[in-house]
Amino acid sequence: MNITWHGQTCFSLNFQKGKETINVLFNPVDKETGLKPVKKEPDILILTNGFEKKQSGFLIDGPGEYEIKGIVINGLYSFDNGSVDPNNTVYLLEGEDLKICHLGFLKQKELKKEQLDELGEIDILLLPIGKGAKEAVNIMSQIEPKIVIPMYYHVPGLKEKLEKLDSFLKILGIKSTESLAKLSVKKKDLLNQDPKIIILQN
C-alpha cells in the first residue's frame, strides 16, 4: 500500500488487489486553501466532514460500514463537548491486511472506551495535530499504532492558521526527522517494528 499526503487532512491511499490498484481519496483540498488540489479521480472518495462532493468515485460521507472493491471501511462517530459531532467522522480502513485510522478533524481531547474498542489494533494512524499538539499526543498514546503520520498542521502556502509540526515533535522529544514523498508499506514490514513517526511531504 502507498500513502501520499496532499496537505491538511487530504490523503491518497493506493491499495493493490492482484493487478488492480484501488485509489482512496480523503478530504480533497481546493485551491482556496492555498494548496494544490488532487486532479486524479479516486475509486473511493471519503469525506470526514460530509462537505460537498467535488470529485467522482464511490462516496462515503458519514458513519456506517462499507465494503468496496475488497476495502472494508467503518465510519465511527466522534464527539464534541460530549455530544456527537455532526461535522466529523473517524474512519477505519482495512486493506492488504493493514488497518488504517483517519481521525479527520477530531475535536476530542481523548477517545472514549467504545471508540477504542471499535478501532482495535491500528497499524497506521493519520493524526491531526494543528489544533492541539498535547491533545494529539494523548490520542496517539491511547491508540498505540505502529506508524503515526501527522496531518492538519501548518505548511507553507496554507491560509488556515494551525500549529507547526515542531510543536508536536518537541513534546515527543524528536529533534530531527526525515520526510518522505510517500509511504510504501506492507503488513510484514510492521511485524517486528517499534512504533514510529513518519513525516510526509505535501
How would you describe this structure in keywords?
202 residues; alpha/beta; Metallo-beta-lactamase, Chain A; seven-stranded mixed β-sheet; six-stranded mixed β-sheet; 15% helix; 37% strand
How would you summarize the topology of this molecule?
Elements (H helix, E strand, L loop, with lengths): L1 E4 L5 E7 L2 E7 L17 E3 L11 E3 L3 E5 L2 E10 L2 E13 L2 E5 L10 H7 L4 E5 L4 H11 L3 E5 L13 H8 L6 E2 L2 E2 L2 H4 L5 E2 L1 E2 L2
Parallel strand pairs: 3-4, 4-5, 9-10, 10-11, 11-14, 12-15
Antiparallel strand pairs: 1-2, 1-13, 2-3, 6-7, 7-8, 8-9
Tally of helical segments: 4
Low-confidence stretches: none
Biggest sheet: strand arrangement:
6-7-8-9-10-11-14
- Give the name of the CATH architecture: 4-Layer Sandwich
Compute the gyration radius: what is it? Answer: 16 Å
Give the rounded overall mean pLDDT. Answer: 92
Name the structural class.
Answer: alpha/beta
The rounded distance between the terminal residues' Cα atoms is 18 Å
Number of domains: 1
**CATH homologous superfamily heading:** Ribonuclease Z/Hydroxyacylglutathione hydrolase-like
Summarize the structure.
The chain has four helices and 15 strands. It has 202 residues and is an alpha/beta fold.
What does the model show?
With 202 residues, the chain is of the alpha/beta class. The protein has one domain (2-182): Ribonuclease Z/Hydroxyacylglutathione hydrolase-like (Metallo-beta-lactamase, Chain A), CATH 3.60.15.10. Helices cover 15% and strands 37% of the residues. It has four helices and 15 strands. It has helices spanning 113-119, 133-143, 165-172, 187-190, and strands at residues 2-5, 11-17, 20-26, 44-46, 58-60, 64-68, 71-80, 83-95, 98-102, 124-128, 147-151, 179-180, 183-184, 196-197, 199-200. The strands form three sheets. The chain has a seven-stranded mixed sheet with strand order 6-7-8-9-10-11-14, covered by helices on one side. Strands 5-4-3-2-1-13 form a six-stranded mixed sheet, with no helix packed on it. A two-stranded parallel sheet has the order 12-15. The longest helix has 11 residues, at 133-143. The protein starts with a strand and ends with a strand. 34% of the residues are buried.
